User: Fold these one by one.
Assistant:
Number 1:
Amino acid sequence: MLSCPKSVVGHPELIKNTGFPPKDLPTGRQAAGMSSCTVSKYMLNHVYHIIATLGFIGYIPHAPGTFGTAIGLFAILLTRPGDAVLVLLSIPVIIVGTVSAHHIEKVLGKDSGHIVIDEFCGYLVSVMFLPKSTGYLIAAFVLFRLFDICKPAPINRVESTISGGTGVMLDDLLAGVYANICLQVWRVMFG
């Protein structure tokens, strides 16, 4: 972790240059006026931005959350990971996503629609411990989006009571749990 002085956090160059499309790193006179710590923090903010928006999928004009979920669907469709692998990969993705969402929410605003790492992670939760057949994966996609959009209780209270990256991620993780429970019940009854 960087040990930058507190004056670097919230530095105007870091805030204004975190937008989309990302600007190049400062060079010449601009770079000469910035400490190496500031440049490192600047680069770290861009990494957070790329993670939180899934490589800028979050900037698709219509339904960016659905596209973020679709990235999760295609990743699982292409790789068909086992449950152990999915859990082991999901844990660090959720942690890094939470940290990234926390930092970028300060720039983009509370639970900005551009932040879509939460939809990606929520979808991963929705398919855990289920068959990775196309039918289950598509059903998980539909149910996850339904719960994410409708936000039944207690999901609807999470965003207003928990702030920062944790609040951004938690409502989608709960929507993933709801979708997963529905599909687990379906599997037991009809599978």
Number 2:
Amino acid sequence: MRGFLAARGKGTAGQEGIGVDDGPEDPAEATPALYTPQMPKDIVASGPANGWSALTPEPEELAALRDQVGPGPVVMVNLLKFKQPDGLAAMVRYGQITAPLIRRQKGEVVYAGQAGPVVAGREDWDMVILVRFPDIEAFIGLAVDPLYQSKARPLREEALERTLWMVSQPTSGAS
């Protein structure tokens, strides 16, 4: 099974464990060409209250990130709560499709793991995934890629009850 998520064994809550699987080793097996989004820069920012899917923003809304995110690398922070009983299985299939698309955009999954006990706050999550991209354009390229939109996005929406998906950038002096 190839993709950035791979089920392995049983976790502490009876849920299958999660591992990172970067997909095909051979770059020829991965999607070959960088996808460059073609979207206007002047799209107004919006959020779930303004019509986005609460699970996956529309490509037009992603374009607003261009004006909100500075230059340089970004890490996409994903906190995921799965639908039961099959959300994890749908997320594994999502990872199989998305892993080569992430690599095509020069991104990498830097961490994927089960969420642990909540130390502060009231939200509970099943999984945490951190994906680094060279810049926000690379992330937007992934999110608006036709293969992502047609195959991966429906699986993400099938998998998730809710999510927090946000951009993080290194602080000054960090990389």
Number 3:
Amino acid sequence: MVRVALPLFVVSAAVAAAVAGMGSEPAAAPSALRGRPDLVVELTVDPAEIPPAGGDVQVAVVVRNLGSGPATAVVVTLRPPPGSTPAAGPERPPPRWQCDHTVWRCAYGTLAGGGEAETLTVPLHLPVGSAGDIATVSAAATTSGHETSTDDNAARAEVAWVGVASDERSWSLLAPAPA
């Protein structure tokens, strides 16, 4: 009888469990995904209806970082309807926002993981339109870091030109009919 010596490998329980995929600890996220930002943008316009002569609206942009890592060099770019201009009057963005309305861009700096930037409100003057026209205002956020997802980095809202302002319409319903 011939005896063959086979090498003996000693495998620790932790290695065996990891190889079998049955480790007692959950698998760690790949290092490429840990600590990444994930920006989310919400946008509202108030009022949502203006008269055909045009008018002023307030565009409010909220930026959140749902990721675990910081979003550095956060920039929001607005896309107002054609013919729009910054509304008259003093615009005072929150202290952390630095805006240049010649290019409709506002910079925030760094937004911590899980954080929310101060609401950015931009006064906007919309041009003359026809009753029934609809215009879209949009905003998109970017960061210099690699995000886990960019699917929700943009938002939009619509403004409608109406025959009469909403408030005027409701008052006319309350007024007595002429005799």
Number 4:
Amino acid sequence: SVASVNARNNWWGAANGPSGSGSGSGDRVSSGVDFGNWRNTKVSLFVYPENDTTVLYTGLLSPVALFFQNWSTPNDNVKFRATSDKPWLYTTEEKTVDLDQEWGGRGQLLFGVPDGTPAGSVAHIEVNATSTVDGSSDKARFVVIAGSMALSAISIAPDSATIAPGDTVQFSAQGYNPFSRSVDIQPRWMCTGGSIDQSGQFIAGNETGLFQVMVIDIESGITAQTEVRIGWPTRVEAGSETIATRFQLFQNYPNPFNPVTQIPYSIPERSHVTIRVYNMLGRHVCTLVDQVQPAGQYMTSWKGVDDNNRAVSGGIYIYHLMTNLKQQSRKMLLLK
């Protein structure tokens, strides 16, 4: 059998479709081409939103980008107008955009979802665009969903700690809404295995073991907790070198930090070691270590820059240690 090439919904140069295997007078097509549902008018202008579904926060003015392209008239000037089935759209007047970039042109719509709008409410948007040069037109449809700004989760930094009896570690807490945007909280700190003040400073007691640090948002009752291991580092002496007896990635310090933090780690045997930093979207930021190292305890540092030595924005970052046999990750908080 002959494989079928999917060429449906195309313009073939004539309103009655393609010639050749088709019965029209347009462009000739060979057998094995599925040209069904052809367009009866020429299509050259395209408009499309940055996302088919966009979540917007209540109580804020939020832009949504539109992109335009005209294959027949690259340097076009396009008129466009948007409509919505909910009164969230601020850009209701007709606007124009010049397709003065190699890839076309960019327009923008402004939305304002009122405070009190139930989370998950949906508005359906339609954009109609027309070329002022060749008269071609296109339309795009997308939806806007109302998102809540309310607190939904709390993150504690550092996400764990290993300290000696009597030592201190500073904890901090940050709230987030369902869309990972930061939200202020009213924290109340609690702990086992030591004491903690309401600034988040934990002082380890004399008992060794695994303990908890907890925080609760007074207003919402949402909680979070992390672990604190109180004890003494395990190591043995081998000649004049201190050799680590286990694989471990320690919590960075200081944390939170600005502008530099130290990252201690230990490996129990010779291995190729990499330590990389990622943002919360999982995108690589920089590589701190990439080499073969003998067993031992080590320290590296990060200055809040990427591989091109450009400063990164404040926020939570993940640092990841990988050896031939094991890997481990922790979080750190860069303040700006």
